[in-house]
Amino acid sequence: MSDPNNPNIALRSTPQWGLMQREMFWAPNDGIFQPFDTGEFATVDFMISRKLLIDAKEPEKVKELAKQRLTEQGWLYSSCNAGINWTHYANRMAFYRHQIIPRTLVDTNVRDTATKLFGHNLSAPIGFAPIGINKIYHPTGELSVASVAQELNLAYSLSSAGSYSIEEVGAANGPGTRFFQLYQSPDDEQVLSMLERAHQSGYTACMLTTDTWQLAWRHHDVFNGNYAFYHEHGTGGIGLNDPVFLKRLREAGIDHEKEPKKAGAKWMDENIWHGHAHTWKKTEWLIKEWKRISGGKPFLLKGIQSVADARHAVEIGCDGIVVSNHAGRQVDGAIASLDALEKIVEAVGDRLVVTFDSGVRSAADVFKALALGAKFVFVGRLWVWGLAIAGRTGVKHIMKALLAEFDILMNVSGYAKLEDIDKDAIDTLPRVAIMPTDAQVV
Asked: Structure pTM?
């Protein structure tokens, strides 16, 4: 158990996250109970076919619990993957194949999870991945998430498909480290307006998503017409606070108050998931403009899966990349993001900052991504579920639990420093094709 008087506490630059375990064990004595069991969420996605980990019936109970707390639309949007889930399955199998090698009799009494990303001091190499339309999960949406990120000193990423405005989310994040994720509009004036707003609102980097000019075929969302911007959600705060978009609405004769669905459709169809593919040449233009507007703040490409694309990112002047397959939500039957990470780090890891997302559900997953060379790991669905269950309290609970789990994992596995977590820290099973008994992997 974590000693609350451990001298390491005074030596760390971050909280002794592992003390959360002791506090939660003691809490029932004080009549305090937790908002939810974080293991329930992990169980859902740790389930792999053929009963590799747990009985197949258990995830269904958890799935029903999560569905009870969300609207049907919120549940579908948070859980749907591209096609029949093969890429999502590949992501989870890749994490299973890579296994931690514990070390013993290592002095982990003095350890710390602190790291730096683009010069910013952060509590851990763990951050909030950009996820859109947070209001469908909880009325406070991105405001709660950004606030928790600042409180825990973790990097936060705002999706340009968000519910609240760039300015409101920036204010909620306060002095925190925040990135602005861009879905690049074909309208250059609109792009420049969004970049200017992000810079003025204190976002410290621009992250261009390269794999989602339009949404993939996600069966349940399509069948149910589940596209929030076409319905009650409407445009959202990012579009409705943008001077260029408001001008476009006037030009089209659309009153967003009287015709919110038409306004939402215009915002999405023309600026976010518009179906217009961009090119490397256009990305060079975007980098130049962001650097001009921001005074040289970092620029990242999100969605990189091939070594060739990673090398091209270096050539055009990207400061970093996010190795990501959009958590299996865009290309069905694609490679696992974790498998892509290993090759990309070997090719360009010494030339730009390589970060990672897709399929992360636990501290062990974070550890494995770091061991394969990622400098930073973004998580998504974990905090979405927390937000859906209990708003800001839920987000804080699940992210603090992840930090505690990571801190404890470093302690019990014998790795005192983040720098010690490298390829020698894991063993890898052979890459073989394991056909799931059910293509609809939870």
From this structure: 0.90
